[in-house]
Amino acid sequence: MRSLSLFSATLLILLGASSIQAAPVTEAAAPASSEAKAGTPGKAKIAPHRAIYKMALASVKNGSNITGVNGKMLFEWSDVCDGWAVQQHLQLHFSYAEGDESNVTSTVVSWESKDGKRYNFNVRRVSDGKETDIFRGKAVMEKDGGLVTYSAPKDKTMKLTTDTIFPSAHTSVIIEKAEAGEKLFTRRVFDGSDEAGSNDISAFIGPEQAHVETTEMNPKLKNNPLLVQPLWPVRMAFYKLDTETGEPDYEMNLNLLANGVARDMMLDYGDFAVSGVLTNIEPLPPSDCHG
Length: 291
Known about the structure:
Blueprint: E1 7-10, E2 49-60, E3 66-79, E4 83-96, E5 101-113, E6 118-127, E7 130-142, E8 145-152, E9 157-160, E10 164-165, H1 167-179, E11 184-190, E12 198-205, E13 231-239, E14 250-257, E15 262-268, E16 272-283
Parallel strand pairs: 10-11
Antiparallel strand pairs: 2-3, 2-16, 3-4, 4-5, 5-6, 6-7, 7-8, 8-9, 11-12, 12-13, 13-14, 14-15, 15-16
């Protein structure tokens, strides 16, 4: 199971009113757009924040051996002057039909320059107390493409195409496209969260909606300034770069606010889907860039 990036965010990215059902993206994976050049960041006004989400099993298809999922996710998006610092800590407990159980922890710490040219990442996953994955390194974008240099796995390098962007920039681009009324686009995003590192992400953006309180929302969150924002329903399909089937690796639905906050989400892995419910959110103070 991949780490939850918001968008990459992105995003990650990653969160949920269970009323949003994960719908398949029927369009075939389009080639990543070449419209953006290396180092071209988005210009959306992102609100630095710390959010906590309650994660739970939303649906299971017949034949799946998963009977329960519960956990929580801590997500922090900080403004650190010349860049964005993101921390994401996910804890999930899985229950299976045979009576077995497992605990999975995923931690992602990253820094992304606001000019879109540099990205540092540290990804670690632990399953039942044993480390299963660790990816750590730096990516640099130039006019003719990018280069990723890993410190874990050691001596691993990877080239990036000129149209590749990083997670925070991807979230910003989604908001810009939404504000411009665009409905569908595909971009190549590098987040370093697995062996491939990159995905082609097709995003379908629904019509803008006014802020609406949900019955699932914690009462103390009502009228929170971070949440009283216009929002867009966004459906994203994540494609492996070498896919031959045209089918996404997984899909994500979320309500994305104009300030970059994900009010809710659902992750659809095919035979099961996981939703998240926002339980707490608070602004993070701006960094003292002149200190």
